Protein: Protein kinase domain-containing protein
Organism: Anopheles farauti
Amino acid sequence: MEGSDICFEVVRRAVAGFVYSEAVACHYLRQILEALRYCHENDIIHRDVRPACALLATADNSAPVKLGGFGSAVQLPNGRDSVETHGRVGCPHYMAPEVVARRVYGKPCDVWGAGVMLHVLLSGRLPFHGSGKRLQDAIARGRVTLDTPEWKHVSSNAKDLVLKMLAPNPISRPTITEILDHPWIRDRDKLQRIHLGDTVEELKRYNARRKLKAAVQTVAGGVAMDPLCCADTDSSIRRSSDMLECPCHLPEHWSAAFFNVIEIACGYLRTKWDRGVQRCGAFVLRDVALTSRDDLLLCPPGLPVCQCLPGG
């Protein structure tokens, strides 16, 4: 498919001069819901509903949305409406409370993921923040506030649907069919066409954070610290992924600094990756649009640049 994921496409088209309004967000969400309805009618749970799995078929402004990312999908056994699992599946910020708590879950977890996506489409922000235990606790509480400036121009019907889809109790969430019959979805032709400029600006920041995270994850698998730089370690090469998870391996005098990461670093401070970066050195990102390991270098101040492992 020629188009990128839905959040990147929203920004690209808004920058090109197209209006991004509630009606557009509704148009995108309805197509995602139609795909989920087909899945649920066939007892398939997607389990990883998020923007990266919602792709525009082409770069055309009228291109349809396609739902992908079925690598985590599961089909319910005959006569069952839930699955039992001992692990968490999906992207942490889009996991439903029952998935986070490792309880049995079913089709309502897809409703939750679609609800988080709708929250992002309307505000440019995730409803729950943090990482690890902090994020899990926030999701479990399920307290959603719609009082940031981006929500000022969003209709009450849209807010009502977001809150219903993000109900902490899965039994309280509407089904996909019920959502498609919600006034905000059903009466799309009556929705306001006001450009959501604040939302687009937040989506730019959201996309930038995603690019940075992807770059860090990519480089973590292919960069190693030059052993000559580590006077207090043995001669073995430590992979950058180990250093990020266990920053105590590095000398304390390596001060942390971000260079040339523009505004995206501030929002990225909430991730576990940054906690490692603060201890182990500085990340230099030449261009946030590039995400190969060659575009992100771990650069301890005053010491040689790390080397990329061949074929990382």
